[in-house]
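Loading example: each entry is read as two labelled lines plus one structure line.
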Amino acid sequence: MKIKTQLFGCLEVDEEQVYTLPEGLLGFPGLQKFGVFALPEYPPFLGMQSMEDSNVSFVIVDPRVFVADYQPLLTDLDLEKIKLSSLKDALIYALVVLNSNPENITANLLGPVILNPVKKIGGQFVLTNETDNYSLKHRLYSQVSPKAV
Amino acid sequence: MLVLSRKRNEAIILDDNIEVRILDIKGDVVKIGIKAPKNVKVFRQEVYEAIIRENREAQSSVNQSALNTLNALQNEKNKQKTGNSK
């Protein structure tokens, strides 16, 4: 499947990499098909591209790369929605807000995008469990020293 | 907007299968119980709006210069790694 994107150029997205989000993303109604692919130049970050709107692109990351003990709690119903019995089998990503100042690069740990890699279905889940206390704007590089930039 | 007055322990029913009950009122805090089918999503309004805002911000933040920053971070990390192994 080919799609022209402003940012990632002309992308050839394999069918294997296309996920259906039946409930879409909050704020982007009507978009259900997203391509998820590695960005070889920017590991550990990945790209997530709407297959229905070339202007809708995201950078995502597995939060566990930065927060090793990140463990969103999903209800059985949430898991059922993406046809999973356990989160162990899921891909977990956070949408990233980029910034040219690394200290201001944040990931949304409160509303992770969780994908079923086998059934190619997924969704964004808002963690309503009050004990989770995950941040909407988790700084990924707050420890970066000025030298490292 | 439809406006209804309710006392403590009184409820309203929405669409035959959603019950919204006033459990407690203390000062300016109202405790609300919601019984709804599992597929009905319930969010605090500010959380719902915050996620929408954050999603839109994530989308609009993706541009070439920001990606270059990611690249620079990665290169720096690689340099450090090579440095350590020597």
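The first strand of chain B starts at residue 11 and ends at 14.
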